[in-house]
Amino acid sequence: MNWILKTAFIVICPSLLLYMVLNYPDQSNEIKASNGITKDMGHGLPWKMHLLDPDPQSGSDGVKLADVNGDGLPDLVSGFEEGGVSRIYIHPGYDKIDEFWNYVELSSPHVEDAVLIDLDQNGILDLVTASEGNTNQILFHWAPENPGDYMNSGNWKTEVVPVTDGLTAWMFVVPTDMDGKNGIDLIVGSKRKKGIHGNDQAVVGWLKSPPNPKKVQDWEYFPLTTAGWVMSIKIIDMNDDKHPDILISDRKYSNNSGVRWLENPGRNSKEFYKKWKSHMIGVSDGEPMFLTLADLDNNGAKEILVPDLYNGIIILKQQNNNDTWNHYKIPYPSWSGERGKALAVADINIDGQLDIVLSFEEEGNVASIPYEDYKINGKHSVILGTFSTSPFLPENWIFEKISAKKGRKFDLVTLLDLDGDGDLDVLTNDENEEDDGLGVVWYENPIK
């Protein structure tokens, strides 16, 4: 009998071993903290992923939200840089959330940013796109006057804003009322144009709306600072003087690379239409990507959080309401991506404490990883981070998977309840330029 059991064991065990290798969670990257809590194993199953579009154009570049049709549900727009178009997607309703979203597609060559704004204040959202590449334009896409024609691209009208035409490689558009006149103005940022070398060949500035916004030739441009590669623009009062300042992350190719803010001198100041004073905050020796703000330690003051491309999450904490900021680094987990891109902060697991969602990008021409290989051997590029006690100590953070390994170059992250079940889902996009990216995707929060 013993020889029968031994033979069976020899035959069965290789199959059993193979099953365990394929199905047992990978814990090769597990690191035990001194208190025994697993810190770096990426525990938990990936969240369910939903595609908005089964056939996206190439190079989805960020996602911005707005309620286009007034039904109270979040619609969205994404520009597809390599595809040369922007698509405005309409939320299908909670009962059809698993279906693909309808969209209208508008031509926008080399689009880098796309934002829905009611420029002419007629109650219908228009589209503004910023383009780099060989285009280097800001375009106004005027929506049709009849809401029933909104989804028909032939009824839209597109115009180039002359004062910005060819000036720089436009990367970012933020709507705000700068001067209290004529409605919405636009804060715009850029990186240097192709073929240009040297530092400070980009800008942050603003476009002043004329009395009639549809007269595109009457929009005026005022530069506020030179820059290298603008990744973020946030409008926030940094010094409590009741004037909205501009917080930016200036990635590289700048003599002032880092996270810094531009001080608003006030609308009544003669300096308002000139360059604003720049205050450095931090990450001047790194490569800051998309930043956000949140009060992590619940003390009434917001910290700045920004991925430093290869170096980890940087938390910048202001000291005593002055220009001194403490700098804390939270390393990326070993099983995630290696190039941090964007993050967002909210209570994801509904425990009353803030969490972060972080995205990563991996570019083939940088990492020399062919897309097909990356889909098989890649890393988790959208992750959840939670912390206990102080958020400023790396050992207090635990990271979990949100995405599986499909997708490669993720971008902006937005946290919202897309399916109406009461928890926050994760909306983002895979920007892969090689015609096989995921486009706009959302990950369904499994907590409810």
SSE map:
Layout: H1 2-23, E1 48-51, E2 60-66, E3 75-80, E4 85-90, E5 102-107, E6 111-117, E7 126-131, E8 138-142, E9 157-160, E10 169-176, E11 185-191, E12 202-208, E13 220-227, E14 230-236, E15 245-250, E16 258-263, E17 277-282, E18 292-294, E19 303-308, E20 312-318, E21 325-330, E22 340-346, E23 355-360, H2 364-367, H3 371-377, E24 382-387, E25 397-401, E26 414-416, E27 425-430, E28 439-444
Features:
448 residues; 7% helix; globular; 4-stranded antiparallel beta sheet; single chain; mainly beta; 37% strand
Would you mind describing this structure in some detail?
The chain is mainly beta and 448 residues long. A hairpin with a 3-residue loop joins strand 19 (303-308) and strand 20 (312-318). Residues 1-39 have low confidence and may be disordered. The chain has helices spanning 2-23, 364-367, 371-377; strands at residues 48-51, 60-66, 75-80, 85-90, 102-107, 111-117, 126-131, 138-142, 157-160, 169-176, 185-191, 202-208, 220-227, 230-236, 245-250, 258-263, 277-282, 292-294, 303-308, 312-318, 325-330, 340-346, 355-360, 382-387, 397-401, 414-416, 425-430, 439-444. The chain has a four-stranded antiparallel sheet, with no helix packed on it. It is 7% helix and 37% strand. The protein contains three helices and 28 strands.
